[in-house]
Amino acid sequence: MCAESAAAPGTARARRATRVPAGQPLRFAAPSGSSFFAFSRGRAMRLDHKLEQTIGAAYLVAILAALVIGGVASFALQSVIASQDRVEDIYGAELIEVERLRASAMEKSAQGRAYLLTSDAELLEESYAARKAFEARLGVLLARAEDPAERARLERIAAAQKAHHEALARAFAVHRAGGKPEDVGRVVGAEVIPKLGALEVAIGDYELFVDSRLEVARDGARQAASRASRLVVIVACGAVLLAAGLGVLLTRTMHRLYRAAEERLALFAREERARAEAEAARRDLAETVERLSRVNADLDAFAGRIAHDLRNLLTPISLVPPRLRRADDKEATERIAASLERSVTRANAVLEGLLAFSRSSRPDDTRQMASMREVIAEVAEELAQTATEVRAEVTIQVEDTRVACSPELLHVVVLNLLGNALKYLAGREERRVVVRACRTDDGFVELAVEDTGPGIPEGAKDRIFEPFYRVPGVHAPGTGIGLATVRRIVTAHEGRIACVSALGRGTTFRVWMPCAERKGLPLPPRPAPAGRGAPEATAPLPREGEGLGARES
C-alpha cells in the first residue's frame, strides 16, 4: 500500500468604526492626611476649650460640605454614565438594525441570482425569506421613527427595496418562461444590479444619518463628562484641605468611577470588534457576489461554446441527405455514413458530458461499489486509439481495490482525468502518462494521473475545478465541465481531489475516494486458485513500464 502523499485543498456591515473617546480616565491620588492631623492635634492641645470647639465645628462643617459636594459629584457622574449608556443602547441598536437590514437585502439579491444560475428552488425560498426579514426589520425602524428626516430616509429605503424586488421578479419571470441565459443576464445587468446599488446607497445614507446623530449624542455626553470631571477635581482639592477622611472617601469614589470608565472602554472595544466582524462579513458577501458574477460570465461563455460545438456537429449531419441522393455507389455511401457516425458520436459525447455533470453530485446508489482495476482497464481500452494518435506512452500501476462508488460514476472520473492528460500531450516532446491506484492506510483508495503535458498556469490552479472555466490561451476540444464533474462526483462520495502542476513540466491529479470496506459494503468472493475449477481470470493489465500507445520518436 502507498502512503497518502497530500491532503486535498479544499459573514452585518459597518462603514465607520466606533470612536473610543480619547484620553485615559482621570486618576486622583488619595490625599495623605497624617501630617495634617498631627498639626491639628498639637494645635488643639495649645488652644483653650473654646478654640477646640471652634476647630471641631469647622471640621464638622468641612466634612459636611465635603459630603454634600461629593454627593453632588457622584450624582453628576452617575447621570453621565447613565446618559452614555442610553446613547449607546439607543443608537447602537439602530446601527445593528441597519446592518441586519443591509445583510437581508444582500442575501435576498444573492440568493435570487443564485437561483437564476442553478434553478434551485431552495435558493428561491431563501431569497423570499430574506425579503420578509428585510421588510420586518424596516417596519420596526419605521414604527420607531419620529424625526421626519429619519422617516423620509426609511421611506426611500422602502421604495428602493420595492424597485429591486420588482426587477428581480422580472428576472424570475424571464427565467421561468424558459428564457435564454443571456436574456436573464441582460435583465440582471440592466435592472437587478442597478436597483440593488440604489438600495445599498439608500441604506448607506440612512446609516450615515444614524451615525451622525450618534456622534452628536456622544459629544454631549463627553461634554457632560468633562464638566463632571472638573467637579470631581474640586472635590478632591477640598478633601485635601479639609480632612484626610474625606480623601479616603474620594479615593473610594474615584476607584468606582475608574472601574466604570474601564467598563465603558471595554464596551467600546466590544463594539469595535463587532464592527470589525460585520466588515469581514460584508467583504465575504462582496466576494460571494463577485464569484457569482464570474460564474455568470463563465456560463455565458459556456453557452456560446456549446452552441458553436453543436452547430459544427449538426452541419455535417444536415449535409448528409443531399449527399446520399447524389451518391451513385456503395463506397460513397459508406463514406457519408462514416462521416455521419462521427458527427453523431461527437454530439453524443457533448451530451453525455452535460448529463454526467448534472447527475454528478447525486449518487444513484450509496451501496454500489466498483473495481478500480476494472474501470481503469475499460477506460484505457476506450482511450487506446487516442493514445496512439498522440503517440503517448501510458503506464498503468493499479492494485485490485474496490471503491464505494458506482462503476458508471467512477468511469466518468477516470475517463475525464486520463482523457485530459492525453488531450494536452499533442505537440509535446515527451508524451507520457502514468496512472496509479492503491489503498491508503486510512481506508481510502488513491488514484493518481500524472502527465508530461504543458502544465497549468499558477493563476488558473484555483479555478480549474469551476464549471465552464477554460484556461486562457489554451485551445482544446471540450465543454469545460470535465474537472468540475470529477470534483462533484468525488465530493458527493466523501472523497477529495488535489492538483499539483509545474508549468512546462506536467500535471498530477490525485483523487482519494473511500474504499468499499470503509463504507461497510460486502466484497465479492475472491476467485478460486487456478486449477480448482475456477473461472478463467480476465486478461492482465500492462505490466509496470508497459504502455497502451507506443511511444515514437
From TrEMBL:
MF-aspect GO terms: ATP binding; phosphorelay response regulator activity; phosphorelay sensor kinase activity; protein kinase activator activity
Parts of the chain that traverse the membrane: 55-77, 231-250
SMART domains hit by this protein: HATPase_c (SM00387), HisKA (SM00388)
EC number(s) on file: 2.7.13.3
Entry-linked InterPro entries: BphY/WalK/GraS-like, CHASE3, HATPase_C_sf, HATPase_dom, His_kinase_dom, HisK_dim/P_dom, HisK_dim/P_sf, Sig_transdc_His_kin-like_C
SUPFAM superfamilies assigned to the protein according to its UniProt record, in alphabetical order: ATPase domain of HSP90 chaperone/DNA topoisomerase II/histidine kinase (SSF55874), Homodimeric domain of signal transducing histidine kinase (SSF47384)
Name of this protein: histidine kinase
